[in-house]
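Technical appendix A lists one of the benchmark inputs used to test multi-chain prediction within the project. The record comprises two sequence entries:
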Amino acid sequence: MARPFADRLMEKVREFGPLCVGIDPHPHMFPKLFGNPSAGSIAVWADGIIEAAAGKVACIKPQAAFFEIWGSPGMAALEHVCKTARNAGLLVILDAKRGDIGSTAKGYATAYLGENAACASDALTVNPYMGLETLDPFVETAAKNGRGIAVLTRTSNPGAADIQEKYVDGEQIFMRMAKAFHEKGAALKGEATPWSGMMLVAGATAPEEARQIREAAPDNLLLVPGYGAQGAGAAEAVAGFVPVNGMLEGGVVNASRSVTFPEAAQTAGTVEAWQAGISEAIKYAQDDLHKAVSG
Amino acid sequence: MARPFADRLMEKVREFGPLCVGIDPHPHMFPKLFGNPSAGSIAVWADGIIEAAAGKVACIKPQAAFFEIWGSPGMAALEHVCKTARNAGLLVILDAKRGDIGSTAKGYATAYLGENAACASDALTVNPYMGLETLDPFVETAAKNGRGIAVLTRTSNPGAADIQEKYVDGEQIFMRMAKAFHEKGAALKGEATPWSGMMLVAGATAPEEARQIREAAPDNLLLVPGYGAQGAGAAEAVAGFVPVNGMLEGGVVNASRSVTFPEAAQTAGTVEAWQAGISEAIKYAQDDLHKAVSG
């Protein structure tokens, strides 16, 4: 059996802190230094970020959409980025928000979490709208290969109000989901840590909801978007974390724009100056989060 | 302005009937005749189905997962399939169930519905769990380029009970969604037909729910999965259709396994015999659906 994702992730988080670096090559924010955005240039840009992050942070979260824009060469770039990051010791949480039934879900699981996955990732974000049974093929594949999944639970955007926050029999849907995901998460439990690699996506913009999710799902790691450019601070981002050995832990906090498009880097005239800007932004976010988890 | 998707689709449906041929290259069902499944062989297999379907049916629905299994070469195969089908006059509804916020959703929309989309499709399936605002980038891009979207509303699987069928303030979530999608669908209305290209996915396994959806969303075309191998018959599949010019219409009915993996074709020893089996299965499904819409 492969080593559980939860253990692999938390080992790194305990060493480097909970920052996850989002790799979102927005075409409209792409720095001129790397030329026009394309499948090739976004891979070069991402390589530079991976180099700045390797040995410094636990994980990266590439956003599939910004690679899919470029079609099959973009997917090749995504495969390159995942491989380069994993070879550099970074865990990869692929943000592709897949979800479907039966053999189709199995297809997505094979593509990203399979033993010989074409685009091998350590975890994959999954959308649960089609129901709980649709998670099973992802969980099975992940459990077998020491991978994880991160299920959308309470996202960081206003639209969370339309379905996720609605009350059913006196309980909000995201809370019903959190309880169900917690049960299914038993299959992805760590051995060296008490955590489950069935991560729940819980936006930093809703700290109170994150605390509720933590109560409903005490051992599920959280994947927290919305920190930084989306407006939430470090304290809000770790609202669902709990004390372990004198520190708060319980998941990873993603930062994309604030860390990969900092102004100092965007206007840099050389790759070295650009990379220094990225390193500085990573350090700044890490210090900010470190203060919050040292609380 | 590009010609609306709703008009383009219904023109073909009125000529050929509501059958949509699902292109789902399941690796475990792949016919030996085409060799081992791979990015290359599934493209050759799909080409054969497209050739059998061209000039006979309105549209195809490739399932992205079964191409993504093969990584970037699989995405190149999917691009090839979409292009070949569109060049042959078939409309392409890409079943990729994407969904995300803001600029990320815009990325997916650009990738599949954009003017110069890398993988150009006529419509894309979209998952609404993250909320109504997340549909806007898809709708905007689709409206601009004469494309459509197909939003998951009430799917054909048992898991539909976990979120979609739950009651919120006395009304089921799929019905609340159907009403909201109906409103947003105004941006994708046809000109020559009364239909909107904001399609709603409504499983054939739930005909009563399809009728309810039709009441809530009177002008939205339906994308109906679950007919054939998933167990629903033709009458159930067209439950959400309404009389227009003496026939029932209101969307398309997808058939995948029953049409693309019929036993006669699976065991064929030559490409010609295989293709004859596919053509026969298409004809059979068309006749079956024709009876139901001639009601």
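The longest strand of chain A covers residues 91-98. The domain at 5-294 of chain A is CATH 3.20.20.70 (TIM Barrel). Comparable benchmark entries are summarised in Table A2.
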